[in-house]
Amino acid sequence: MVRIYSTPTCIYCKYAKEFFKKNNIEYTDLNVAEDEKAREEMISKSQQMGVPVIDIDGKLVVGFDQRKIE
Length: 70
Description:
This protein is 39% helix and 24% strand. By secondary structure, the protein is of the alpha+beta class. It starts with a strand and ends with a helix.
């Protein structure tokens, strides 16, 4: 399961979502700019407020790091 904590204006969030779409990987997009619960969850998991935070089966990738994601 892939969850992307993102904001609508974040270009790296957009790149991450495009990467998953291109590779036919389903994901849940959590807009932390509007969803306070998702924002708190992201901060609790990653200990930071930067986006994107990508949770892949419990493993976190902070930022869009294609090598780590692959």
